[in-house]
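Quick one, T. Sequence first:
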Amino acid sequence: MAAMEERAGEELAVYCKSLGCPKNRVDTEKFIGQLGSRVRLTDNPGEAHLVFVNTCGFIEPAVRESVRTILDLAGEKNRALLCVAGCLVGRYGTDSLASGLPEVDLWLEPAQREQWGEMVLAALGRDSSVCAGRLVSTPPSYAYLKVAEGCRHRCAFCTIPSIRGPLHSAPMEELLAEARTLACRGTRELVLIAQDLSDYAHDLGGDANAFPELLRRLGDIDGIAWLRMLYLYPRGITRELLQAVRDIKPLLPYFDIPLQHSHPDILRSMGRPFAVEPERVLESIREVLPEAALRTTFIVGYPGETDEHFRHLYDFVERMRFTQLGVFTFWPEEGTVAASLPNQVEDSVKEERRAQIMELQQEISRERLEAEVGSVQDVLVDSVNPEWPGLHNGRVWFQAPDVDGICYVSGPGTMPGAMVQADIVECGDYDLTALAREG
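Structure tokens:
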């Protein structure tokens, strides 16, 4: 094994690469905290004692990226311990991966995430008795709060339940304590994440009010200016949840709802856990919160998707005018029901359909952002723009970190972590430009 045994109190140089979704990022942050207070993060794998890769294995392109990253780092790591964790390991298993990737020194299963730090420190010959807590890697403006792990749904195209396991909600008091710690750190925005946030506490015997109650208690924490929800299944958009969004001041009327399609035939084939008319869900949101930002994702080229099914989806997007939208082409993932369905769609057709939806959404996004020019918005500043001196990258309330457009902002008080009031002066297809006001 390539581990370098060091004295327990000596500095531990760590190179980290976290691939995939924000849930992986939180797992990586907590893992680094498990390693203790003597950790030094480095951008150079060649000088690290530990090279850690938290992989994604959700779809085939993510699998290929994970394997490519592992092999690249194996050639750069010098004498470091190469440790690989996450969804790739959960999907294919340690034994299968070890035979194909002998360059890896230590494999960590997702189900072992609470013990990752202890296992790695043991492999390095270091003391595992000291834990520094979570080491947040996001800018001071925001942090992710993972409220649940796994998923209890069984969509025909999805590998998540087999990789990350069944739904496992975090106890509410633990989440509140973690949120208070993040607020004390200076975090202005908490981004709540789970495979389906509205399913929170279902496995703990909680009722439909458990998630709204969590939101209310998070909203009472001093210092948190914005609460944002990522990933809500349509079935969980209840009247209680909408009232909570309306009544809780920090809670943004931002709904990320992965609809995946609009046509009842395709939704039934997908096994989506909600009624086959997603338009009703969106109308219920806009009835209570007319200003709500709606974000979604769709899959095109699902087995059996005809031209008629696609036209239904295209017209739905045109009619609903989503604030943000992502489109994925269907991948027949090994081990899923959808992979063996008849009437698979040709790749060229999938790509053409994706391009058509994205072209339509580009026009919608541009029109929506043009309407914001001339308005005054609160802008949360994330980082210094790396190319233009004096310019910062920030976001207005309907822009989530990492997945949506950004707001370029300059002027008084603009620094990472600051919330500034600014005039929106220009827009592109997906981004805004703003000038901060005095005072």
